[in-house]
Write a structure and sequence with these properties.
two-stranded antiparallel sheet; 7 helices; 5-stranded mixed β-barrel; alpha+beta; about 20% strand; 9 strands
Length: about 220
């Protein structure tokens, strides 16, 4: 079995071959520009383009949509599909992610799809990777206007990256004020005086006090 080639190399080879064959790609100083028809929408921040005879997976940059198993996940996907499905879009590729997807800014007839998804409340600004304060401002406006996912009850507005970090549908640990407790002072459930203290040490200190990994620490205290 041949070794897997680095994603960057695969992209460059793909870009070169397609450019020679169909002139469907154009390179500027920083980005590769891909033009193709949207043939599939995975969720609210990922889609697949047909470029010539190839299919190219695209991850919308700077945003993070609810996963399909989350509240508003299917609505987010439907919103993106309604916007771009079967349409020809332009994707300005920024990088390749670990899933071999082209992370890109996507445009349709002058519309910036990434920003529209956030502005309409169909996705979060992915603050960890956002390169523009404007995307964060669009999220603030959508939140203030109660648009899209921001119309959900607050307990259902779970940031997708936090939801994935917890492993999906595991219970969300409510944040505890840092001033109440301090890391490094206790190390076992037998030393905890309350469930709130145990939750703090699990969530904030990373203490291994959740033996069955169900999101509930020190179950004698937190039943």
């Amino acid at each position: 079995m041949s070794q897997r080639k680095p994603a960057e190399f695969v992209l460059l080879v793909f870009v070169a071959s397609c450019a020679l064959a169909a002139n469907t790609f154009a390179a500027d100083q920083k980005r590769v520009v891909v033009r193709g028809q949207v043939v599939a929408v995975g969720d609210g921040d990922s889609l697949t383009l047909r470029v010539g005879n190839e299919k190219v997976k695209v991850r919308l940059a700077q945003i993070d949509a609810p996963e399909l198993g989350q509240p508003y996940g299917r609505e987010s996907r439907a919103a993106l599909a309604a916007m771009v499905s079967k349409r020809t879009v332009r994707a300005e590729v920024i990088e390749i992610d670990r899933y071999d997807r082209n992370v890109a800014e996507v445009y349709l007839d002058g519309r910036h799809v990434n920003r529209d998804m956030v502005e309409l409340g169909h996705a979060w600004a992915y603050t960890k990777y956002s390169r523009s304060i404007h995307v964060i401002e669009l999220e603030d406006a959508a939140r203030a206007g109660g648009r899209g996912l921001w119309s959900l009850p607050e307990e259902q507005r779970d940031a997708p990256w936090e939801w994935r970090h917890r492993g999906g549908n595991r219970p969300r640990v409510k944040p505890i004020a840092r001033s109440q407790f301090a890391c490094g002072t206790k190390h076992r459930c037998s030393e905890m005086t309350s469930c709130a203290e145990a939750r703090f040490h699990l969530a904030e200190c990373g203490l291994e006090i959740d033996g069955d990994r169900d999101g509930i620490p020190c179950e004698s205290l937190c039943r």
